């Protein structure tokens, strides 16, 4: 099986292109939210505008948590805990014991396992992204239903 190419072997134009598309999407989303805020102000929907402000703040928090997890992925996976502690309070009885999929050899040398493996941090990031997406969808649905109720 061929290993995936790292960022070092990826052409700079490809990296720049992907970053440019992500920045463009972010700018378009920010502009759309700004237009929605102006529309709500014109329609004098003060409470919905406040709710939109809180939603943007929560999404900013989700993004910040994801960024922190990305930056702290290696230090988190290097925190070692005793194997007995890692086997306590598992969410599933039939789950694979911790440490089976870890790549952190420094902890294994000490007879311990990492607090959260690199793979676990990635899965946690995916959970945060899923929460953010469903949060957006539920808020849009709530906004839509509220607008239908106010303007029959």
UniProtKB/TrEMBL annotation:
Family: Belongs to the MLO family.
Protein's GO biological process: defense response
Keyword Cytoplasm attributed: no
Compartment list: Membrane
Major subcellular site: membrane
TM spans (from-to): 12-40, 127-146
Membrane topology per record: Multi-pass membrane protein
One term under GO cellular component: membrane
Entries under PANTHER family matching the protein: MLO-LIKE PROTEIN, MLO-LIKE PROTEIN 1
Source species, domain of life: Eukaryota
Alphabetical UniProt keywords: Membrane, Pathogenesis-related protein, Plant defense, Transmembrane, Transmembrane helix
Protein name, per record: MLO protein homolog 1-like
């Amino acid at each position: 099986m061929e290993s995936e190419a790292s960022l070092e072997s990826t052409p700079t134009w490809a990296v720049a292109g992907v970053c440019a598309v992500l920045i463009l999407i972010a700018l378009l989303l920010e502009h759309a939210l700004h237009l929605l805020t102006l529309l709500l102000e014109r329609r004098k929907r003060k409470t919905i505008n406040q709710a939109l402000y809180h939603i943007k703040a929560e999404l900013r928090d989700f993004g910040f948590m994801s960024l922190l997890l990305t930056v702290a992925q290696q230090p988190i996976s290097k925190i070692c805990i005793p194997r007995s502690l890692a086997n306590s309070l598992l969410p599933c009885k039939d789950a694979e014991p911790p440490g089976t999929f870890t790549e952190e050899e420094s902890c294994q040398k000490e007879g311990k396992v990492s607090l959260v493996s690199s793979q676990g941090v990635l899965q946690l990031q995916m959970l945060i992204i899923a929460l953010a997406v469903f949060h957006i969808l539920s808020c849009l649905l709530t906004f839509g239903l509220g607008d239908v109720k106010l303007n029959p």
